[in-house]
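The material for today's practical consists of a large collection of protein records. An example says more than a description, so a record of this kind follows:
***
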Amino acid sequence: MIPAAPLPRIDFNTRKALMFALTAERLSAFYEHGQWMTEGQGATLAANWLSRSKLQLALSERRVLSDLSDQLARQLAETLSREAGLYASHEMMEALDPNYQSAFAHDMLDECERMLREAGVEED
């Protein structure tokens, strides 16, 4: 039996993009359904996204990203009016398409980077 090839390492930018996407999904779910995703739901969603690209991340690392995205999503929801929150959610979901450009989404990516660095997630 031939051993499986090692999975590619996930770099800092991929972690940042994953945190951004999780934040977008959390905000969208909150504004659509009035409920927050659990940490486990976020970690599972992250695993599903990564598997599409044939990438993996340890559950403990997915949970960190899930927790950070939850913090950011709740912070946005607490500080924005409902209308502004809906706009933020929409902009972030649209920005998941790499062809969509958004100044707000770039600011949120910067915030994801800041939070990851504060949490000790290092660049590879």
